Each structure stands twice: as C-alpha cells, then as structure tokens.
Amino acid sequence: MASIRDLVSAIRQRDGIDAAVVLGRDGLLIDHQADDGVDAEQVAAHVPSILQYADELGKAAGQGQLLTAVHENESGTIVMSAMSAEAVLLVLLRPTADLGALLFDLRRHRANIAALV
C-alpha cells in the first residue's frame, strides 16, 4: 500500500514542482519534499488561517467547505487541497508546471489520497 511519503515523492517528481507538503490543519508538517530555499515549515504555518477564511467564505456563499484552492502568484502557483478533516496537501508550482493535470489528478484521486492520511 502507498504511504504519505510515496504521495509526496510522486507529486515532487512532476516537472515544475518546487515543493509537496502534507500538513495537519494546525500547520504542523507531516511530510514534505522541497527545493532548497523553500522553508516548508514557514509556508505550512500560514495555511491554517487561509483555510479557515476560505471555509468561512464557502459557507457564506453557500458553497460548503474548501476542497482545493489555487493561488496564482508572481513567480508561481500555490495549490492547497484538503485531503481529510485532519490533513492538507500543499503544492508549490513554477509557472511552467502543468497545473491542469495536477488539479485533475487531485480531484480524481482525492478518496485514495485521503485514505493515506
């Protein structure tokens, strides 16, 4: 059976991925692989507040809880995907990465990924 480490490694092997991080909803790292210069702990520490406000926005808009958020920044894209009530997958992508394929795979395999965490 696959593990969280296998998931992180598989995502990290995709072209254009700077980091793959699995963290708890409290912002603490569970597992990660990242390029030098990416402080995974610092990045993960910001996720809980973003998720809280995104969930509140979804509820206010009648859309429910956040499943996946995509943040396009100047130098790349950040994807946060709620894998379970306890865990979140965070992926940092360069502009050259295939964002669409990653989002498709995350949606398609959400249940399998959630079973890992």
Strand order of the largest sheet: 2-1-5-4-3
Mean pLDDT: 93
Question: For the record, what CATH class applies?
Answer: Alpha Beta
Helix content, binned percent:
40-55%
Euclidean distance between termini CA atoms: 13 Å
Q: Based on helices, strands and strand pairing, what is the structural class?
A: alpha+beta
CATH architecture: 2-Layer Sandwich
Question: Could you state the order of secondary-structure elements as H and E?
Answer: HEEHEEEHH
**Which topology does CATH recognise?**
Beta-Lactamase
Instruction: Give the DSSP E fraction (strand runs of 2 or more residues).
Output: 25-35%
Helix run count: 4
Query: How many individual domains?
Result: 1
**Low-pLDDT runs:** none
- Give the overall shape: globular
What is the CATH homology-level superfamily? Dynein light chain 2a, cytoplasmic
Rg, nearest Å: 13 Å
Largest sheet: 5 strands, antiparallel
